[in-house]
Amino acid sequence: MALKLVLLPALVAVALADTTSYRPLPPSPAPIYSARAPSYNAPAPSYNAPEPVSPPKYDFSWNVKDDYSSNDYGHQETRDGYNTQGSYYVQLPDGRLQEVTYTVNGDSGFVAQVNYQGEAQYPTQQGYGSAPSYQAPAPSYRQPRPSYA
């Protein structure tokens, strides 16, 4: 208790003795300098793309048909200048064939027509409700002997 009587007045005395006022510091003056001129020259262009000598013109097609994995898809496209026509197809997992035929005429954008051939088929799943095809293993341990016998 005597210690509390000594510490409390000491703490009050320290708090009252600190009479400095806390004011924010005045703002620092803005730095005075000028931007330096770059010490390098702008790079010269290193590649000049050649101007086209004629409008683009091409024709291509490719197909994939793999009966083992049921993959069947392909793509065909023809371009003459700014007019492009083409189509691509893919065999869907539900059995239908999806074919997309498209055209691009100048700045008209990509205009696509999507067609489906065939009827979607969803075969019933087999094997989920059947019994397991494995047999339970035979135990490979012996019954323990009682230690009290």
Automatic annotation (TrEMBL):
<feature type="region of interest" description="Disordered">
    <location>
        <begin position="68"/>
        <end position="87"/>
    </location>
</feature>
<feature type="compositionally biased region" description="Basic and acidic residues">
    <location>
        <begin position="68"/>
        <end position="80"/>
    </location>
</feature>
<dbReference type="GO" id="GO:0005615">
    <property type="term" value="C:extracellular space"/>
</dbReference>
<dbReference type="GO" id="GO:0042302">
    <property type="term" value="F:structural constituent of cuticle"/>
</dbReference>
<keyword id="KW-0193">Cuticle</keyword>
<feature type="signal peptide">
    <location>
        <begin position="1"/>
        <end position="17"/>
    </location>
</feature>
<dbReference type="InterPro" id="IPR051217">
    <property type="entry name" value="Insect_Cuticle_Struc_Prot"/>
</dbReference>
<dbReference type="InterPro" id="IPR000618">
    <property type="entry name" value="Insect_cuticle"/>
</dbReference>
<keyword id="KW-0732">Signal</keyword>
<dbReference type="GO" id="GO:0031012">
    <property type="term" value="C:extracellular matrix"/>
</dbReference>
<feature type="region of interest" description="Disordered">
    <location>
        <begin position="123"/>
        <end position="149"/>
    </location>
</feature>
<protein>
    <recommendedName>
        <fullName>Cuticle protein</fullName>
    </recommendedName>
</protein>
<dbReference type="Pfam" id="PF00379">
    <property type="entry name" value="Chitin_bind_4"/>
</dbReference>
